[in-house]
Design brief:
Blueprint: E1 29-38, E2 41-50, E3 56-62, H1 70-80, E4 85-89, H2 100-115, E5 120-130, H3 132-140, E6 149-153, E7 176-183, H4 189-201, E8 206-215, E9 220-221, E10 224-225, H5 229-246
Parallel strand pairs: 3-4, 3-5, 5-6, 6-7, 7-8
Antiparallel strand pairs: 1-2, 2-4, 9-10
């Protein structure tokens, strides 16, 4: 499928807001607003990648139900500075709550977008998402074989149509990290423990990190990326996990 890049924004060196998981290995990155075409429609998205020539793991990032806020752009930049090509999909470009079928096709087309790049290793692809994006990560990791690892942030394992992530625990073959918090009201941590128990019974390869006294969506406040100790630790947990699983 034809994929269209929009080169209208200045490509610039970026200042990374986090204390890096690999501080002595930080690299310069570039970023662009881009369009990913899926089912004949263009999705306004955001791409960040290392400036240094090389072949890197590729990551699809799915923002929360509140849209592709500045905080996710900043996180994408910081993620790329760790040695990843990161595509933050603007999945709400056309409608606020697309169907799971439409979203799965968008994931496949996002993979095509990344693997068409010379700087992305098609064997080292990851998926991460937040809130609704966390649900999509849980849902699509068992269904999209191209993703070699995933990190699901404060997702909803029991929501979905026609199936939920809970329905697919026996089909999860790639490793996944689940990041959640004890004070998550929209997605109570009890549901995450239930999901983790089901994954364990299915002998799935997963890890679980729970933060105490943090609310739902704790990585962003009012659309801006948090950079306190909790947010920095959680970001580094994600980076470390993808480094371990994607190489």
């Amino acid at each position: 499928m034809k994929l269209k890049l929009v080169f209208s924004l200045l490509i610039a060196l970026l200042v990374v807001p986090f204390v890096s998981a690999q501080d002595d290995m930080m690299i310069s990155v570039a970023s662009e607003d881009v369009e990913v075409t899926s089912d004949g429609q263009a999705y306004a998205s955001y791409l960040a990648y290392p400036e240094e020539e090389g072949v890197y793991p590729g990551i699809v990032l799915i923002h929360s139900f509140n849209g592709l806020q500045q905080g996710y752009r900043d996180m994408t930049d910081a993620f790329a500075a760790e040695g990843f090509v990161v595509l933050a999909i603007g999945w709400q470009t056309l409608e606020r709550a697309p169907s799971d079928t439409l979203m799965q096709q968008l994931m496949l087309d996002s993979i095509d977008y990344l693997t068409a790049r010379d700087d992305v290793d098609p064997e080292r692809l990851g998926l991460t998402g937040f809130c609704a994006g966390g649900r999509y990560t849980m849902l699509f990791m068992p269904q999209v074989d191209a993703f070699a690892a995933g990190v699901a942030w404060y997702g909803f394992p029991n929501n979905g149509d026609p199936v939920t992530a809970m329905d697919l625990v026996d089909e999860l073959e790639s490793p996944m990290l689940i990041i959640h918090s004890t004070d998550d009201i929209p997605s109570p941590v009890a549901g995450i423990y239930e999901y983790a128990t089901a994954l364990g019974e299915a002998d799935a390869d997963f890890e679980l990190k729970i933060y105490a006294n943090e609310p739902h969506g704790f990585m962003l406040i009012d659309g801006e990326l948090r950079t306190n100790d909790i947010a920095t630790d959680a970001f580094n947990e994600m980076v470390d996990y993808f480094n371990r699983k994607l190489g």
